[in-house]
Give the backbone structure.
Amino acid sequence: VPFEGQRAMGWQAQTGLHFDLAGGFAVVPGPDGRSAFVSTPTGAIAALNRLSSDPESIVTTPLPSSPGQVEAVRSALTRWHVGASVITHEGRQPTYSVAFFAVVYGRAPAYRHGVWVWTGPPGTTSVPVSSAILSACAGSRPASDPLTAAHCMLATATTPASPVTKPSTMPS
């Protein structure tokens, strides 16, 4: 599913491809008659906004990294009946996004034609997540294997002694 920050709406309109986009914003009339923006997004939309940042934009919020943010995105993808999630090399930190989505889906993506692709609904596999683990796994990707970050994240769920230190307790 293209996300609003990835400039999908232009080619969607030009090619006649019709599908919903997650995200966006609205400008509405305020009580004084002036334009007002709708409040800042929260939940899954906020997490997807942050992962999809334009590399040239100024970002003031941290990357999503909590179990609650993972669950919000997982629930939204299920509720929206998303058939595929695609991560490109564009954006501020695509490898971090791959690591985050590996946690959301509970499995590694396919890497085809230079993009990471998950198909079907997200799984329910519990993978420990924190900003430290995500950052370490995102930084571990050698150029020769684009799936290293995803495999690193999934290894934290299956191996007692992973290369990344697991948190001793996970917030619920």
User: Anything to note?
Assistant: The longest helix spans residues 67-79. The beta strands are 27-29, 35-37, 84-87, 110-112, 115-119. The chain has a mean pLDDT of 77. The radius of gyration is 17 Å.
